[in-house]
Automatic annotation (TrEMBL):
Transmembrane segments: none annotated. Residues 110-132 are annotated as: Disordered. Residues 4-113 form the STAS domain. InterPro entries: Anti-sigma_ant, STAS_dom, STAS_dom_sf. Belongs to the anti-sigma-factor antagonist family. Pfam families: STAS. It comes from Virgisporangium ochraceum. This is Anti-sigma factor antagonist. Residues 118-132 have a biased composition (Basic and acidic residues).
């Protein structure tokens, strides 16, 4: 089993989860726990920093989509940052980047205006966005 590590950082009003390793069906539990903890507050604001993630399988994608749904349902914001080429390609191919906006940096994710994509309600059918 490949180890997945999740560090927690903060920015004013935001929780930043810094993920390292492979997000796979048998390794994603540390990320799942960190997301649950970060979502515990009222209207959570979460950035998942993917810079040190080398691969993400379908269970990892489902984990991110589930977190997005829960955070947006609670009136919060959920954003991704710094996805490497392989992870970014998986997000693009699955069309998830129309919902889970990937920012070039954590600072860009935190400073992006509300409604920049990651605060859409599940099922929002804006042009170019899939219903999840």
């Amino acid at each position: 089993m490949t180890e997945l590590r999740v560090g927690i950082d903060t920015r004013p009003g935001w929780t930043v989860l810094v993920v390292r390793g492979k997000i796979l069906f048998d390794t994603h539990e540390p990320l799942s726990r960190a997301l649950k903890e970060a979502m515990a507050g009222h209207q959570p604001k979460i950035v998942v920093d993917l810079h040190e993630v080398t691969v993400c399988d379908s269970s990892g994608l489902q984990l991110l989509v589930d977190a997005y749904r829960q955070v947006t349902a609670a009136g919060g914001a959920f954003r991704l940052a710094r996805a490497r080429s392989l992870v970014r390609r998986v997000l693009d191919i699955t069309n998830l980047t129309t919902i889970l906006v990937v920012h070039d940096s954590v600072d860009a994710a935190v400073s992006a205006s509300p409604g920049s994509g990651s605060e859409r309600e599940p099922g929002d059918r804006r042009p170019g966005g899939p219903s999840i």
